[in-house]
Design goal:
Layout lengths: L27 H22 L2 H7 L3 H11 L14 E4 L5 H10 L27 H20 L8 E6 H4 L2 H13 L4 E7 L4 H14 L2 E6 L3 H13 L4 E6 L21 H4 L1 H20 L3 H8 L7 H11 L2 H4 L11 H15 L3 E5 L1 H7 L15 H14 L3 E7 L3 H14 L4 E5 L17 H6 L5 E3 L4 H13 L5 E4 L13 H4 L10 E4 L7 E5 L4 H13 L4 E5 L3 H5 L3 H8 L4 E4 L8 H4 L4 E3 L10 H8 L3 H14 L26
Parallel strand pairs: 1-2, 2-3, 3-5, 4-5, 6-7, 7-8, 8-10, 9-10, 12-13, 12-14, 14-15
Antiparallel strand pairs: 11-13
Length: about 675
Amino acid sequence: MFCAQTDIAPRPDAPPDQAPPSDALAEPATRETIHALRDAVRAVIEVRLGDPAEAAQAGAMAVPACVLWNQFLRFDPASPDWPDRDRFIVSSTRHRPLLDALMRLAGQTVAPDGVVGYGVHPAVEMAFGPSGQGLGAAIGMALAERQLAARFGRSIVNHRIWALSCGTELATGVAMEAASLAARMRLDRVTVLFEIASHEEDEAEDTLARYAATGWMVRKVAADDHDAVQAALSAAVRSRKPSVLACSITPRSAPPRPVASATGPMPDHSTLLWARAARRGASARRSWLRRLVKHRLRAEFERIAARRLPSFWREDWLRAWHTASLSAILPDPDTIQADTTLGYGRQGLDILRDLVPEMLCLSSRRGRERTEAMPADQALPDCGTLVHGLAALLNGIAVHGGMVPCGAITFVAIDRMRPALRFAAMMRQQVIYLLTDDGLALSEDGAGWLPVEQLASLRAMPNVLVFRPADRRETMECWELALRRADGPSLITLSPMATDANAPPDLRQRRPRDGSARGGYVMEEARGPRQVTLIATGSEMVIARQAQHLLVRDGISAALVSLPCWELFARQDAAYRAQVLGDAPRIGIEAASGFGWDRWLGPDGAFIGMEDFCEAAPSGELYRRLGITAERIHETAIRLVNETGRDFQSPSGQKADGHRARSVAGGTT
């Protein structure tokens, strides 16, 4: 049997209102109170579920939950969104009835029959999601708490994170990765409670051994033993490691007494049974408010608590962006070229870290190599290849509040982060992902690193904005859009491929100011009536512009359209989209799958990209093998113009194919 580790010491940084309780045996009156709370919780669950067997299973963790809520959890029912409250995470759906009962009895719901769910009530910290995501989010909250405490001090940031989970969830890969990161970062303010059924003993022992080997404090107690539960929770409060408390469940039969009808009135036990917890929480919040009033950073703390960006940040952002020297901030000019969206993305991250101090960036090992995501004096250990856990932590940082989470990873690694990304989109949380090595830049490492279907799959996910900037200006605009967006995750894909240094010098002045904000715009209009429209994203804009020059040489009026964000472009009115795309034949250019491009190209359009994996080769060679070249675009444009009957002049003044082409109206020219 696992027991508490020996690295337990009193916390000198805890204010008087959060002094840890003693781990001595509880007084009889306290034990009687816990038993009354347990009975009340189970009665509510029985009324709600109706089935005695389901109610017995749902109420199995009633004693640990009541000990936690009555003696340890710091919350004020009158202010469920108090910034310095303890966070209580229920990550498994099997504990939904228990959470509902606890909130009802503690007076955290106004209507007894109201729905308790994420986004409906502020005391519900997060939604139920894929297995393992809840534990990862709890660890992310502990990281956010520590970062905020380092900035504002323990006088106003001093809370803990408690998670109620299950053994099957703790054994998942994402939970193990997140647990490894918690131990590596020594996030000692997170405690996880989970139940062990009699048939899960062997699997639970294996899980506990893994957590103990990772660096967690592990204890195992009987779920109905109030004294053992209290002692274990007290040890977790004093421990300098993250803690996990395993509670063995003893099967119990349904109580013989009848329960009230599910449609009848529900008894209110909150005043009598939860008075102690409510008084403790209200007193703690009043003390905290007095300290906040006197705190020198009160205005700044209230700003981040309200999720507002700093005043005049945009003016400073534009000034710093246009005056910063890119070569001076690149960690390795030989690795990251200056004139790339990857280089510009790193520039934006460095600037925003100074202007928006609440930005917290986690990175994989490859992402850190590409972006140097944190300066040396604030460095967090990189997450290595634990991108499952990294993504789960980002969600917890976002849900906790007070921080803007950012993750720097390679593009292909997004496949391992997809469950967490989907969870963030579902909860509408602001998480920024920097996806490095967009396109074919990693092709020399093999086809496994070649992103083919990732862009299409990410664009298909609801409430996600996928930005693929083409140059310096678009990178700046996409950074700003991602930072302003507060109702969902944003992904900025960055490429180490050089942008077009031969673009017309006055092109920036001719672009619309809100082009990226509208998702798409005409980067360079045709010289005359449009005969073909070239639509590109990202680094393929260089190839599209080269093809445009070839077409202009042959007398074809070609427009160049950039679509840095499909989702924003789709939100524009039909008239604007028609104005940008035009009615001429369209050609889409992107080093990715063409799935979804038909919505922009129409029935007469063509797509030039890749639909299959390719063998390892230098990126320039791969573009040639896949046919993503200016010459192929040029040939495709000529074919489309001839097929649609668009007339154009060759440099010699003759018709392109020496014959009269059919006009759109059906006549001849």
